[in-house]
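User: Okay, second chain of the day. Same drill as before: sequence in, structure tokens out.
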Amino acid sequence: MSWTDLLEFDRKNIWHPYTSLKRPLPVYPVESAAGVRIKLADGRELIDGMSSWWCAVHGYNHPVLNNAVKSQLDRTAHVMFGGLTHEPAINLARLLTDLVPRGLEKVFFCDSGSVSVEVALKMAIQYWQVLGKPGKTKFLSLEKGYHGDTFGAMSVCDPVTGMHSLFSGFLRKNFFAPSPECGFDEPCRDVHLREIMSILEQHGAEIAAFILEPIVQGAGGMKFYSPEYLGKIRQLCDEHEVLLIADEIATGFGRTGKLFACEHAGVTPDIICLGKALTGGYLSLAATICNEKTAGTICGAFPGVFMHGPTFMGNPLACSVALASTELLISGNWMEKVKSIEDQLTKELAPCGSIAAVRDVRILGAIGVLEMDRNLDVAAAQSLFREMGVWIRPFLNLIYIMPPYIIDSADLSRLTTAMKAVAENISS
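Assistant: Same drill. Structure tokens below.
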């Protein structure tokens, strides 16, 4: 069947993310991908600036990760995790507990980042029920926050700008505090915490946990905030008997310049959610990791078990490639690579601040953001990027990149040059 026929079927029958079937955005057929390049069916090659939504940190078709999948496939692709276990899951859990902030050591594997958030929310609720505080069933989160598309995750996303307002009548009502106003390099003052303190003082008896994206609010606007703020949130949670859940799905595994964004503040949450880069973009896998106190409490009284168990929990293929990806990351010079990307992004994107339509330029680790003064025509912008030989997918008023860590300086310059060109095109 020709690509013309395939694309026609795609256009009429396949939903793509946040896309209308009646007015679908263009899609470009992919033939293959290797390194930082995505090869389209027409032979055009695009330098990937998105790491396929932030997960392909080692690029594509990596021999180490390919071999991990092939080797495990010869053993078994999947076995149920109920009553059975296997070496890939054990070794991955052992490695993760060595890497995450100290004290997080009880690992629950799940299917995706969104599900890892669901698991964290359920852990928090069950924790307080066991402690005889069944009224603590609500959550506090941040405006501009994003935690996933499943129902529990939707309930802690920004209720106005979090893409889920259509379902507000079905979602549990939680508490929301203003998005942090103290930038990454700024101090956190009492005024930045005033509303959070008020919510905790008035409703702490109802709140099971405070869930946030540490340091970087991703899909809610690519905002970076002060590590001091995160440190003070940890203190407030302790004072008001509220668990702290760190959603590190987007920020984990080096993206912000630290292995985990919580490290910028020297903070250990009670529960951490991991996903995206965990498998290097090969398979869907996530992990929710909590401390001994949380796990021990949950399992210490009726029903004595944590009430969750996905079918594909601990999938051997996914665990094998996640183990290989994580070992590849920590055995290499990831920190130097990310710092080099950050330095180059700073040098090449900072001048974009003088472009008329650019409201702000933000860089942290391997993240570069141009915030525009208006929302973009995504289809038109992507067409321009494709013509320049790069793959960058803007959203709302943001042109941003989160490239694979293996990208070289020449390819990174092509990405930043394209960002500048599109920003100038919007300004003209």
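The chain has a mean pLDDT of 96.

User: Thanks, on to the next one.
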